């Protein structure tokens, strides 16, 4: 709420407020959020009218925004130029999440041999395995944060033969288990 107030230079009225806490005194919630809370909710969330997303930010600076956008575009161009084969492989891996082609099939789809693809990726400082791990990690984090799929479903969609293999890979990528990652995201 403090960040929101700083962004908009005023308090945005909430249409609903739900908290996972057991019932308690509503006064602090009314003071902080401007409304009472629904207690014992499945998830904590604050909602507001969608029309508020169209409001201009009072402290927005169009010059700074343009400079940031230009810098982002330059970084994307440099990345694409540096890693054109890696970008292509990454895009192919994301075309059908959960159905990742073997390196040989992907190379064939690109019209090169797997040996050529391996050499091109090595020249760009990466490998098929690293790109596959990157895509799997990104998808895993998104699916875990959404909370709609079970760990078993995520593991299966990412092509892991067993949940334990997924747990091991996720821990290698992030330093924590998928369950802990999901809990941390839900607590935010």
Task: Describe this protein with a few key phrases.
single chain; about 190 residues; mainly alpha; Arc Repressor Mutant, subunit A; 2 domains; two-stranded antiparallel ribbon; 10 helices
pLDDT < 50 runs, ≥5 residues: none
Q: Tell me the number of strands.
A: 2
Total count of helical runs of at least 4 residues:
10
Order of SSEs? HEHEHHHHHHHH
The CATH architecture of the largest domain is Orthogonal Bundle
How much beta, percentage-wise? under 5%
Globally, the shape reads flat
Rg over alpha carbons: 23 Å
Question: Gap between N and C termini, in Å?
Answer: 13 Å
Structural class label? mainly alpha
CATH superfamily of the largest domain: Homeodomain-like
Strand order of the largest sheet: 1-2
The number of distinct structural domains comes to 2
């Amino acid at each position: 709420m403090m960040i929101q107030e700083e962004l908009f230079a005023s308090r945005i009225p909430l249409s609903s407020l739900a908290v996972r806490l057991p019932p308690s005194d509503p006064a602090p919630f009314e003071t902080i959020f401007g409304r009472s809370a629904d207690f014992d909710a499945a998830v904590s969330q604050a909602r507001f009218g969608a029309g508020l997303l169209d409001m201009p930010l009072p402290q927005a600076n169009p010059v700074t925004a343009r400079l940031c956008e230009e810098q982002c575009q330059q970084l994307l161009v440099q990345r694409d130029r540096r890693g054109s084969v890696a970008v292509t492989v990454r895009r192919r891996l994301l075309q059908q999440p959960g159905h990742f082609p073997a390196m040989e099939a992907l190379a064939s789809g690109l019209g090169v041999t797997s040996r050529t693809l391996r050499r091109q990726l090595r020249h760009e400082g990466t490998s098929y395995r690293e790109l596959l791990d990157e895509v799997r990690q990104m998808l895993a984090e998104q699916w875990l944060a959404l909370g709609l799929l079970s760990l078993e479903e995520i593991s299966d969609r990412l092509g892991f033969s067993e949940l334990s293999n997924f747990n091991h890979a996720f821990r290698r990528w992030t330093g924590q288990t998928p369950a802990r990652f999901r809990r941390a995201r839900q607590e935010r």
